[in-house]
Every structure is written in structure tokens, then in C-alpha cells.
Design goal:
Distance between the termini: 37 Å
Oligomer: single chain
Helix content: 25-40%
Bound molecules: ligand PBG
Number of helices: 11
Strand order of the largest sheet: 1-4-5-8-9-10-11-12
CATH superfamily: Aldolase class I
Mean pLDDT: 97
Radius of gyration: 20 Å
Low-confidence stretches: none
Order of helices and strands: HEEEHEHEEEHEHEHHEHEHHEH
Structural class: alpha/beta
Number of domains: 1
Largest sheet: 8 strands, parallel, barrel
């Protein structure tokens, strides 16, 4: 049967019918809200390349946390900005149980125990070279880095992190972390693996936020080549074998095909990271009056669900949740 018997526009005639046949919906619990925390007191700094997004000192984080929770967001992903004098090539501050990350986790879990706290595990904010691992002769060492990353995960778990989120792309780190966590008694601490993380130009604004741009070279010897799909599936497969609970694809919009392929191939929760550059693009175009910000935001977030993502880490978490809640 075809036209004129079939008219697909029948199902598009009114908001009611469109709402009834809509295949995918966004809800606040789909979102993971990234938070940037810095040392100091009583201050909030807007990140220049991420309009309306801020770094907070821990003592003024309450308002933001209450707003996120008020909108129904259930999880946060923590990143810290580390002062230069605490950076080195060994991750000393990364494994400091009294470090800013560890203090932040304790603070949030003490005051908002219902909030799921995820922590970034990688050395770049702590590295004098701005790389995710330990550097020797301009090479990013794998196995030595994995050892420190595993200790870092344990330190976060001790502070109370619910889920650790390794974003470093070293080989074997998920297995090493799982083993270290279990050995330290943290069998219930989850791992959200940045499994298919590409060497992307869309991380630029984030590196401004944390002052973590690589001091030499780039990240192409550990992050993935944007040209590859098969390799992403191998990365995901290995991370699952090593014990990942959730796998992630990053960035988001330019890699929707990868999100889809991962969801089709594996039965595991898939998250996607709608990264800083994707946020900046929409914000910048909206500032110029070239895009409708809310519509562009919702359309891109919905695209992640359609591609197969279960969870979305996004700087739009609060704004999108607010919009979803106001439309109900
Ligand atoms: C660092 C890390 C990066 C992001 C999350 N964790 C940057 C990088 O790999 O250089 C990017 C997030 C974003 O751009 O929003 N390990």
C-alpha cells in the first residue's frame, strides 16, 4: 500500500498526535552534569569559551548543586583545576587523599548523599606537561601511568565516589582499576570508561576551563583517530572484558555513528559526552543570533537518545532539564 492510502502526515497533524507517536524523549535523569571546581574561597568564574558555565570554589558549590537536584538531575561528573605549583610528572596531587577532588567528593556525599558522584580519572589537570599520563622523553608511558591511575581511582573511592570515570585512554587501565578497587574493598564502586575517546579539536574550551592543554605535541598517541570505527568497537569490547560498568563515546555530535554502533553491538549502558566545543558552538551561534539556542540544544540532545545513548554528559544538563520540566 502506498499513497494516497498511506499519508504519514496524518501522524504529524497536532501536538497531541506528535506527542503520542514520539519515539524518544529526554528526561533530567538522562543527564550527567559536569562540574568544574577550583581552589580558593567564595568565588565563581565564568569560563570565557563556555558562556554561562562556571568554575566554583567548593564553599560556593551548594547553590549549583541545589539547582541541579531541583531540576531532577541525579549525577555530577567532577573535574578540578589544579594550581600550577601542585602539578608534576608523577600525579602526586592526583593521589592525595586531601586533594581538591577528594575534598569535593567528601563534601558532596556528606551534604547530598542521594547525588551520584562521578570523578574524572586522568593526569592532565595534574600534569606539568598537560598530558593524561606520565611523560618520559616526550613519550606518554602506558603501564607506569596505569599504576598511578589505579591509585587515583582508589583515592576517589575512599573519598566516597560512586563511579570513577577514566578519561585517559591508556591500555589496560580498566582492568587495573577494577583490581585495585576490589583489593581495597571498593567492590561497589562503578567504572564508567571513556572507551572510545577520540583525539578531538572539540575539547578546546575544556582545556581553557582547567588550564590543561598539552604543553608539547598532541594526544594522538593515546586518544583515537577520528577516522576509525572498528577500533572503537575493539576498545569498548576490551573495556567490558576488563570490567567497565558503563562505556562512553566522546565527543558526541560528530560521533553519533559510533554511539549507534556501540549500542547495537553490546548490551551495556552507553553514555555519550556532549563536549565543551559542541557547547561552545551552539552558544556562539546563538549569541550572534544565528541559531535558536534552546531548539538547537534540545535537538542535539535528542539526537543522542535516537543514536542509542542511555546517558548524556552535557554542559546543557541544567538548562535542558529546566526546559523539560517547564513543558510538563
Ligand atoms: C581529560 C579530559 C578532557 C575532557 C574530559 N576529560 C580533555 C582532553 O582529553 O584533553 C574533555 C571534555 C570536554 O571537552 O568537554 N582527560
Amino acid at each position: 500500500m502506498s499513497f494516497p492510502n498511506i499519508r504519514l502526515r496524518r501522524l504529524r497533524q497536532s501536538p497531541a498526535i506528535r506527542n503520542m507517536v514520539r519515539e524518544h524523549n529526554l528526561k533530567p535523569s538522562d543527564f550527567i552534569a559536569p562540574l568544574f571546581i577550583m581552589e580558593g574561597e567564595n568565588s565563581t568564574e565564568e569560563i570565557p569559551s563556555m558562556p554561562d558555565y562556571f568554575r566554583y570554589t567548593l564553599d560556593v558549590l551548594d547553590k549549583e548543586l541545589e539547582e541541579l537536584i531541583g531540576e531532577g538531575i541525579q549525577s555530577v561528573l567532577l573535574f578540578v583545576k589544579v594550581p600550577d605549583e601542585l602539578k608534576d610528572n608523577k600525579g602526586t596531587e592526583a593521589v592525595n587523599d586531601q586533594g581538591l577532588m577528594q575534598r569535593s567528593v567528601r563534601f558532596i556525599k556528606d551534604h547530598y548523599p542521594e547525588l551520584l558522584v562521578m570523578t574524572d580519572v586522568a593526569l592532565d589537570p595534574y600534569s606539568s606537561y598537560g598530558h593524561d599520563g606520565i611523560v618520559e622523553n616526550e613519550e606518554i608511558l602506558n603501564d607506569e601511568s596505569v599504576e598511578v591511575l589505579a591509585q587515583m581511582a582508589v583515592s576517589h573511592a575512599k573519598a566516597g565516589a560512586d563511579v570513577v570515570a577514566p578519561s585517559d585512554m591508556m591500555d589496560g587501565r580498566i582492568g587495573a582499576m577494577r583490581k585495585a578497587l576490589d583489593k581495597a574493598g571498593f567492590t561497589n564502586t562503578g567504572i564508567m570508561a571513556y572507551s572510545a575517546k577520540y583525539a578531538s579539536s572539540f575539547y578546546g574550551p575544556f582545556r581553557d576551563a582547567l588550564d590543561s592543554a598539552p604543553g608539547f605535541g598532541d594526544k594522538r598517541t593515546y586518544q583515537m583517530d577520528p577516522a576509525n570505527t572498528d577500533e572503537a568497537l575493539r576498545e569498548v569490547e576490551l573495556d567490558i572484558q576488563e570490567g567497565a560498568d558503563i562505556v562512553m563515546v566522546k565527543p558526541g555530535i560528530p560521533y553519533l555513528d559510533i554511539v549507534h554502533a556501540v549500542k547495537q553491538n553490546f548490551n551495556i549502558p552507553v553514555s555519550v559526552y556532549n563536549v565543551s566545543g559542541e557547547y561552545a558552538m551552539i552558544k556562539a551561534a546563538a549569541e550572534k543570533g544565528w541559531l535558536n539556542e534552546e531548539e538547537a540544544m534540545m535537538e542535539s540532545l535528542l539526537a543522542f537518545k535516537r543514536a542509542g545513548a542511555d546517558l548524556i554528559a552535557t554542559y546543557f544538563a541544567k538548562a535542558a532539564s529546566r526546559l523539560i520540566n517547564s513543558n510538563q
